[in-house]
Amino acid sequence: MTLFILKRLAQIIPVTLGVTLVVFLIMQMIPGDPAIILAGEGASTETVEELRENLGLNKPLYVQYGEYVNDLLHGDMGHSLKNKQPVLEEIATRLPITIELAFYSILITIVLGLIAGIISAIRPYSIIDASFMVVALLGISLPSFWLGILLMYVFSVQLQWLPVAGWDSAKHIILPAITLGAGGAAIVARMTRSSMLDVVNQDYIRTAKAKGLKGYVIIAKHALRNALIPVITVVGLQFGSLLGGTVLVESVFAVNGLGRMIVDAIRTRDIPVVQGGVLVASLIFVVINLAVDIMYRLFNKRIDLN
Amino acid sequence: MEKITLTVDHSILTNARKAARKKNRARFMNKMKKNKAAVAGGIIIALYLLIFLIGPLLAPYDPYDVQLEQKLQAPSLEHLMGTDDKGRDIFSRILYGSRLSIGVGFSAVLFGGTIGTILGLIAGYYGKWIDSIISRILDIMLAFPGILLALAIVSALGPSLINVTIAVGFFSIPMFARIVRGSTMEVKKLEYIDAVKTLGANDFTILAKHVFPNILSPIIVQASMRLATAILSAAGLSFLGLGAQPPSPEWGAMLSSGRDFIFTAPYMAMFPGIMISILVLGFNLFGDGLRDALDPRMKN
What we know:
A: mainly alpha; B: mainly alpha; cell membrane (chain B); transmembrane (chain B)
């Protein structure tokens, strides 16, 4: 197991370097002269030259990349072109909000998804199962940004139970967390159902039934434990779309998290902030994937991931 | 001595191949027909394609025509889906916008699918260091949460619908490449590939004529699944103001402008949202059915 973890850790080094390379190349993809674009329209030639010098755009590409990685290792992600603040500081204030949102969303994804999936699997092809699965299908198909607006319309505009936007109290968290977690819950519900149905047809479940064990004991002790293995992978994969989803949901509910920071930075073409935001979000994703792989291994000892 | 001539009647082979193909097609159609959800999905997609083709001809008004005196009118017989904040007919805009929203999804999947398939074929067929390099690049692409990679690309190229198509297509590349790579590795081990090689066919002919047609099923299944994601992502980027720009009637962009009027004119955001959701639902239903019929191994 330790060997597996070490191997897996070693694997993420090239991936992480690759991620930094892609993020670095974003700057190079800008059509035309990045210095002119970054300096903004109407900037004087001196300003453009100064910027070019500061950003090291005169140097060869590999030198620029080396310096970029070196800066990153020293915690320097550059400065925002708009407010001149260090990008890392900006991220440090925004990231906790996004993590909080992601935490509650994944909680909704797991709890709702598992409950719906298990109930559906216990009573397959019943009305409850059918209605859960229809709702799950809708959950997968509704764009999160539209679901957010719908929830906002019902609970904030019509019923006036919850605030429209912002991030000041517990009440503010409810709608964005449901919006972000719903799609994942739908996927987890479908996965749990099909996985449970696969498991309940196995011989050892029949044996458990023959032994006279009670239904809930069979479900909780025997079926669920094995059915959960593929579900863990799905939950892990959901983290990725969840991180991406924060971009949209934070924009809908005017939450000042990392996602909204990236979108605002794109609008103002504040490339260092975009680079920093995308890099941090992707690195979090890489770490989560690693954790999921390890958990998968712990839960399923039969599978040799080496 | 009697001279022996060996003649092969090619028509027999051709007919046998045709018959096998026909049988496969019939089996596939049978499976699809039995799957009610897939049929429903297929009907939804067909209806949208119809809107895509003839929608603009049916539009009662000019989708760009600003009539400020008619602004924010609730749905009525005159304006089936009401009017927006500039007095434009929402129904007409939805019909025109279908070409943008559906078109972006298809173009992005075509773009990502083509590049992904080529990369997957090369990696799977040649293996060794070529496979290693391509696989590592794919790993890196998969290390980004999809829409974030698209955001990063749009941030560099600038907001526009074409750039959104490129960005969304780009993050579909690894999904196609992985599946094609795996399938190619399986197919290249088959005997008939050895036979074709012995006959002197070059790599391009083998890949294009003999490997590719045999791995079409997983590619089609993947494409149908990716279409839903591509349409959602493209609409999402336009919603954020990074794709279609005003006054374009792209559905995501329409939804975005509708959000500002949720208190006074909620229908402005409702109709584009419904259109996107039903379309994505159609692709999800159809994609599930297609997967079960063509490639049941992908189920889990």
